[in-house]
Design brief:
By secondary structure, the protein is an all-alpha fold. It contains four helices and no strands. The longest helix has 33 residues. It is globular and about 40 Å long. The two termini are 25 Å apart.
């Protein structure tokens, strides 16, 4: 997705598309931990558990606080940094 310049938003990562769940789920949690630490991930999961019918934007804002658009941009930047377009050669 990074190479194809088709990185989805965090909202899309948790849409009904099971393929995106599998592909982006782990990266999403890694990003949350890198951004707000393990405690932030715990807050996110607790907010999701407390209100599973809430929209995802509300869960992120409740648990993590930052503007959701900034979080989407940060997630894309994180993926581009973690998975560069040109794979690094093995030494």
């Amino acid at each position: 997705m990074v190479r194809a310049n088709a990185v989805p938003t965090m909202t899309a990562a948790f849409s009904g598309d099971r393929r995106l769940h599998r592909v982006l789920g782990h990266a999403t949690f890694d990003f949350i931990v890198s951004r707000v630490g393990k405690d932030g991930l715990r807050r996110f999961l607790a907010a999701l558990r407390n209100d599973p019918t809430s929209n995802l934007v509300g869960v992120y804002r409740t648990a993590l606080g930052p503007a959701f658009d900034d979080f989407n941009r940060g997630f894309e930047q994180y993926l581009r940094t973690r998975f560069p377009e040109q794979p690094q050669a093995w030494n």
